[in-house]
Design brief:
Blueprint lengths: L2 E14 L6 E14 L5 E6 L5 H8 L7 E6 L2 E2 L6 H10 E4 L3 H4 L6 H13 L4 H14 L4 H4 L9 H13 L5 E5 L7 H18 L2 E6 L2 H7 L2 E6 L2 E7 H6 L4 H8 L4 H5 L7 H9 L6 E4 L5 E4 L4
Parallel strand pairs: 3-8, 3-9, 6-7, 7-8
Antiparallel strand pairs: 1-2, 1-4, 4-5, 9-10, 10-12, 11-12
Helix pairs in contact: 4-5, 4-7, 5-7, 7-8, 11-13
Bound molecules: adenosine-5'-triphosphate.
Length: about 300
């Protein structure tokens, strides 16, 4: 089976401050996982704020250098310093979808201008008919059409519609992989599921793999095939999404699941955090431990006991 994406033992350290107050932040530590080229999937990265999700995504997109390890896309090293042609070819295959669609579009520019310039760039053409066709096809894939979008500015659309336009833009080069960093967190709660379902249909109907980055366990449970849970830069648990979320093993994964607000518990007045779980999860921070493969197909980080 061939590999679409191979993240091999990747770490990222940021150095901050001057000569005298130098501080090193290890944003990602020894992350490894791979996606198959034959079996499209939604692969989710979950973790609290600052756990390294975005840094990992930026390295996969070639927007950030890795400090150690390597990332291969279809066997070729992802390299942000590769020449213009090589970068363009890579970007046609791995497209980002960002969190805030209102930031992704300039409020003074009509939406179709973005779609047009992406089509021109990746299809290497100035032929208006070809560009219009590519834009319309991409918009149809997300449940819109060029007729509906033409002439409109970003503020004339809802957050959900605009995020659909951002996803349509990303689909223009027909990429096999999308990296969606918190794509629903800025969209109204009532429209969120339509975007989540859209990601699902991109996988099921178009064969696009998606790396879905989120804080939200509920949508992760609903759409993911596999997931990794990250705590302060380290993968603490990885495996089939339902296996992991039905019965999380690592203390941090259990804490995350335990922190999800259940309406039943809230109704019963059971909202206090469990201090012993918080302590257990915090005790693991900074300890490398070892990610151990388990017979049920998941991997869980374990620590030596004193
Ligand atoms: N350019 C940078 N320079 C210095 N430190 C950085 C930089 N980018 C990220 N970091 C640090 O790396 C760590 C991981 O950050 P990252 O943004 O990847 O986390 P995250 O899980 O995506 O968080 P969030 O959910 O809030 O977006 C944090 O401690 C952050 O402060």
């Amino acid at each position: 089976m061939s590999t679409l994406l191979d993240v091999r033992d990747v770490s990222k350290r940021f150095t901050m401050g001057g000569l005298f107050g130098r501080k090193v932040v290890e944003a990602v530590s020894n992350a490894s996982f791979s996606l198959s080229a034959e079996k499209p999937e939604i692969f989710t990265i979950i973790g609290e704020s600052g756990s390294g999700k975005t840094t990992l995504a930026r390295m996969i997109l070639g927007l950030e250098d890795v400090t150690e390890g390597e990332i291969l896309f279809r066997g070729e090293k992802v390299d942000r310093h590769a020449g213009r042609e090589a970068r363009l070819k890579f970007m046609g295959n791995v497209q980002p979808v960002f969190q805030n669609p209102f930031e992704a579009f300039n409020p003074l520019k009509k939406i179709e201008r973005y779609l047009e310039s992406t089509a021109r760039r990746f299809l290497h053409t100035n032929d208006k008919a070809v560009i219009d066709k590519a834009m319309d096809e991409a918009l149809q894939k997300v449940g819109l059409s060029l007729k509906e979008v033409r002439g409109r500015f970003p503020h004339e659309m809802s957050g959900g519609q605009l995020q659909r336009c951002a996803i349509a833009r990303a689909l223009i080069p027909n990429p096999p992989l999308l990296i969606a960093d918190e794509p629903v967190s800025m969209v109204d709660a009532s429209l969120r599921m339509s975007i989540v379902n859209l990601l699902k249909s991109l996988r099921d109907d178009l064969g696009v793999s998606v790396i879905y980055i989120t804080h939200d366990l509920a949508t992760a449970y609903y759409i993911s095939n596999r997931l990794i849970i990250m705590q302060r830069g380290r993968i603490v648990e990885m495996g089939d999404a339902r296996t992991v979320l039905d019965n999380p093993e690592h203390p941090y994964s259990r804490l995350l699941k335990g922190s999800v607000l259940s309406t039943d518990d809230a109704g019963a007045g059971k909202l206090e955090t469990q201090p012993e779980m918080v302590k257990l999860a915090n005790d693991m921070v900074g300890k490398p431990g070892k990610l151990v493969d388990r017979p049920d197909g998941r991997s869980v980080r374990v620590y030596e006991t004193a």
